Amino acid sequence: MNMKFYMTPGSCSTAIHIILEELEEVFEAHIVNLPAGDNFKPEFLAINPKANIPALMRPDGSVLTEVPAIAFWLGRARGRGKLWPKELEDETRAMETMCFVAGSTHGHGFARIFAPGNFVADSSLHGSIKAQGRALVEKGFAILNKTLEGRSWIAGDFSVADAVVFYVEFWADKLDMALPKNVLAHYRAMLARPIVSQVLREEGYRPDTLGQKGPK
Ligand SMILES: N[C@@H](CCC(=O)N[C@@H](CS)C(=O)NCC(=O)O)C(=O)O
Asked: Which helix (H) or strand (E) holds 64?
């Protein structure tokens, strides 16, 4: 059985989409329409009771969720491990960065910007929740900027961790947020990868219009 990939264009699943294509995997893409609430429909909840994307149904029918876990499994188990670092220190740093991006920069920062109502019901407070999210995102990029000091990729050679960092860089670009120098260089290096361009086009974006804003 081919793998089934549950995704939404322009979301955090873009990281997994890039990894699948970088690995030249053959998979079925299933688009989950989040604005329409398809993630809460019984047929999707049967696949992922967490009601979120990405989810990856593997060839044995088991389902993986959570960006860092899916990225780890794909990087380590597929393509002869070519997208997973070889040295323990790099493996650990790759995991550290993926957890930070998914848990903090996305989970605390961008989540407040995109869905302030999940944090406080009173809509008069949504502006301040969004501002708090923006501050958390900026703090996150300042930390990633240090991680990327003097290096092209997050952990040694290009790895799944770079695709994970990419999705928050891409969101910042879409929100017209300037990225710090090393993060911007990383984002542009990702945009220069043919697979990344291909995935962005498949998801409905124009790669040539991205990465234009100067550093913070
Ligand atoms: N911790 C999860 C977060 C996944 C997540 O928040 N996905 C968003 C799209 S980027 C989603 O499905 N949101 C739908 C919802 O929460 O209703 C992961 O790393 O995979």
From this structure: strand 63-65
Residue 60: strand, helix, or coil? coil
Distances in Å between the alpha carbon of 43 and those of 46, 48, 60, 61, 194? 5, 9, 19, 15, 34
Q: Kindly give the distance from the C-alpha atom of residue 140 to the centroid of ligand 1, in angstroms, as a whole number.
A: 18
C-alpha 51 – ligand 1 centre gap (Å): 8
Go through 15-25 and write b for each residue having 16 or more CB atoms within 10 A of its CB, e for each that does not.
bbbbbbbbbee
* Residue 52 beta carbon below 6 angstroms from any ligand 1 atom: yes
How many CA atoms does the CB half-sphere of 186 hold within 13 Å? 31
pLDDT of residue 5: 98
Report which secondary-structure segment, H or E, holds 18: helix 13-22
Chunked mean pLDDT (size 10), the chain, 216 residues? 97 98 98 97 98 98 98 97 98 98 98 98 98 98 98 98 98 98 98 98 97 95
Plot region of 10 (φ>0 → left; ψ -120 to 50 → alpha; else → beta): left
d(CA 197, CA 157): 20
